[in-house]
Amino acid sequence: MADALRFLEDFRVVLWIALAIAIAVFVVAGVSIVLGPVARWIEIRALPIVMRRARVHHGLPPEASPWACEPCGSVNVPTAAACYHCGVPRPPDAVELRDAATDPSIYHRPVPASQFDPSRYRGPGAPPPAPDASSAPPAPPPARPDPAESSSREGT
Questions:
Q1: Which of 12, 36, 42, 133 has the lowest tally of Cβ within 10 angstroms?
Q2: SS3 for 20-66, per residue?
Q3: In the prediction, which pLDDT does 70 show?
Q4: In the chain, where the domains are located
C-alpha cells in the first residue's frame, strides 16, 4: 500500500494534467451540444433578417440576389456596390442570379488547370534531355602539334 501511495505522489502532476484534459473534453462537448441548436437557429432565422436589412441599408431591394459583373463575369454578393474582382461599379441593370443565392460555390471560380509541362521538368529524377543539333556540345578544337616533338624530329 505504501508503494502505491508513493507512486501516486510521484505522478500527481501527470494525474492533474489528465484530470484537466478530461474536464476540458466534457466542457467542449457540453458547449457544442448547447451551441449547435443556437448556430442552426442563427443560420435559419436570424441571418436572412440581417441580410435583408443590409440590402435595404445599401439601397437595394430587400430580396436582391447576387449579381454578375459584365466585364469580368465575376459573381458578387448582393450588397456589393462594385465588383470585387475588377472594381467596376454595379450597374443599375446588373444581371441578378437568383439561383446563386442558394449555391455558395458560385462565388468561387474553379481552380485553373495545371500549367505544369512534364517535358520541361529538369529536376531530380527527370529524364535526360533529348539530343538535337541545337543542344549538341561544340566539337573540340583540332589538336595542335607539340613544338618539342617537332624539334626532336628535325635533329635526328
A1: 133
A2: HHHHHHHHHHHHHHHHHHHHHHHHHHHHHHHHHHHHHHCCCCCCCCC
A3: 83
A4: 1-61, 65-109
